[in-house]
Amino acid sequence: MSKHRAPVRPRYGRMAVLGSSLAVTLIAVLGGTGVLPSTADDTTRDVASDLAGAARDTATTPSESPSPSTLEEPDAVSAPAGNASGAAGAEKSSGGTAAAEQERKQALRREKALPPRSGDGRRVVFSEGRQRVWLVDGDDEVVRTYLVSGSAYDNLDPGTYEVYSRSEDAVGIDDSGTMKYFVRFTEGDAGAAIGFHDIPVDDGKRVQTFEQLGTPLSHGCIRQRRSDAIRLWEFAPLGTTVVVTT
Fold it and tell me: Sign of the CA dihedral 184, 186, 190, 191?
């Protein structure tokens, strides 16, 4: 049985590299002896670079390409560690957000809590210091609470009052605007009625913004959003108790 030797593949890559080395050497020698122009140094670098690139292209044939296992891959250890760190950070952030949200809810509950010594039974409570109104039912449960704008002047004394007059439409003193759902419970020193109503409109514009609710801005009455004014109007018929606290 005859034996055949495996065909020997020409080492084109090695031959190309060897050829490029000889060419570079020859160019350098000629440049040094003055045979080539004074720009030989630049030419030498350019030719050497081109020959080296050609040698690499020739040497790297498909049969000699790097195995996928030798290619650079992401760090198998650092990636999960980074993910774990990110997860821990997200958990910490979530915990911080949850704590902040819990604190916000507690602060909101404190803000909406009825003032101390604000009466009992079915009533409307207004706090001058907190610029807030509470509608409280007969079981002493708050059915609605919201920010308002009370008087900017010291013309309403704390105490217990009752609704004595109501007007769905009204005009402010000195023609200071029109208002709706006016629920009156007392009078100021000059005899002008004091009560709850929506934000007055003057010359087609509200005299204050919704964002300003919570700040005392009126001449004596308690200004509300239209929706809150309607709710109080429905909640407080004649004779309803109104408690004003500090």
Answer: positive
* C-beta separation of 192 from 220 below 8 A: yes
Q: What CATH number should be reported for the domain whose range is 115-245?
A: 2.40.440.10
CA-CA-CA-CA torsion for 237, 243, 244, 246, nearest 10 degrees? -150
Task: Using CB atoms within 10 Å of the CB of residue 199, give its burial: 0 to 12 exposed, 13 to 18 middle, 19+ buried.
Answer: buried
List, in sequence order, every residue forming a beta bridge with 118; answer none if it has no partner: none
Q: How far apart are CA 228 and CA 230, in angstroms?
A: 5
Written as six digits, the tokens of 37 are: 């122009």
The pLDDT tens digits of the residues spanning 166-217 come to 999 999 877 679 999 999 999 998 889 999 999 999 999 999 999 999 999 9
Q: Where are the domains of the chain?
A: 12-60, 115-245
The string of DSSP codes covering 204-237 is: TEESS-GGGTTS--BSSSEEE-HHHHHHHHHH--
- Terminal-to-terminal C-alpha distance of the chain: 117
- In tens, the pLDDT along 8-59 reads 444 444 444 445 455 545 444 444 545 444 444 444 444 444 444 444 443 4
Q: Residue 6's pLDDT band (boundaries 50, 70, 90)?
A: very low
